[in-house]
Amino acid sequence: MSAPFAPHRITVVVTATDGLGDAASRERVLTAAAGVVGVERLRLGHEVNGRPHVFGLGGGTHVSLSHGRGVAALALTGLGPLGVDVEVDRPVPALRMAERWFTESEAAWVRRRGEAERTSAFFWLWTHKEAMGKAYGTGLGRGGLARPAPLPDRWPLPDRWAPPDRWPVRGAAGETRLFPLPDRPEVAVAAPPVRPGVLLAVAVLGRHARGAPVDVHMRPPPV
Length: 223
Known about the structure:
With about 220 residues, the protein is an alpha+beta fold. It has helices spanning about 20-35, 95-100, 105-110, 120-135, and strands at about 10-15, 45, 50-55, 60-65, 70-75, 80-90, 175, 180, 185-190, 200-205, 215-220. Helix content is about 25%, strand content about 25%.
């Protein structure tokens, strides 16, 4: 069921892409997102600085797009510059990559995970760094891989993850909200659940974004 676009929330649409190319995946997720927010069509363009821009919802709408392996995600909000990243958990040399690219504390956090859990832990960190890089407009360059990501106290994560008490923003039961990082109060992040084997992170710039709810829509819904 579609609903009017709510600019004070973050709307994330996730769709399977069946291994389609980037252009076809982009069109599929844009079509799905148009149905979610109740408009006939959404089109994607780019601003002068390279940031993506969406046509079809009026001015002031920020957008971010991510392609995973067989999945794509589109995020929309009126709150400020945002980034989204989606990844499918898959075999990678997680510890070696974490030790090469991440901070020492993050690599140690991955190292403490069981071998079967390290890839999902690696992609948890990667999606947050990618989402923040898109929100800042720098991508993973300019030290983006060293930008600290949240380290959950519990792992594997429960079905719905709430940040520890030191990150004070909590939503109601079953609700995901953006929370600020202790050392980066200018950006707020969230990792809403999607489905097993898929990791998703969202980041929005601006202190006013903290506490904003994140709505995830699977299109088509999972069976």
